[in-house]
Amino acid sequence: MLTLGNIFVLMLLATAGGWLWHAHGLRERTLVLVKQYCERVDIELLDENVAFRKITLLKDGKGRKRIARVYGFEFTVTGEQRHAGQVIMFGPNLGSIELAPHPFREPQSEDPHVVRQPPQVIELDQWRREHRPPPQ
Asked: Which among 128, 126, 116, 72 has a CA at the least distance from the CA of 98?
């Protein structure tokens, strides 16, 4: 026979199960967003994983304090070193993705016979003298 206490415990377990199911869905959405970001900035997501760090109150883009989930991940640029990254999610919406300082890869030329020229350095004083308007 079901008592009021048993019904309460069952509802509590169902609520906890629903919350865990929802949290897993948000983690999967976060993983998809991080993969897309890593492809866009030409870095490699390591372990194909994001790890939940904490739930906290943070300001969103409009300056309002909201409950945020913070996830961590690791990435590499060269394949030699691991670097840390962090994702902030406001519900299913992306707050921000932050990457630790890391080296950047040189863009590869499509033609191996093309010689890349070093960037030119322009002295500001020299440029001003050359582009001074004529006296009136």
From this structure: 72
- Res 34: pLDDT: 93
Residues present in the chain in total: 136
Q: CA-to-CA distance for 91 and 107, rounded, in angstroms? A: 36
Residue 31: which pLDDT band, with cuts at 50, 70 and 90?
very high
pTM: 0.67
* All residues at 6 or more sequence positions from 84 whose CB lies less than 8 Å from its CB, including other chains: 72, 73, 74, 100
The position carrying tokens 């962090």 is: 86
User: Does the structure show a pLDDT above 60 at 109?
Assistant: no
Residues with Cβ within 8 Å of 22's Cβ and at least 6 positions away in sequence, in order, are none
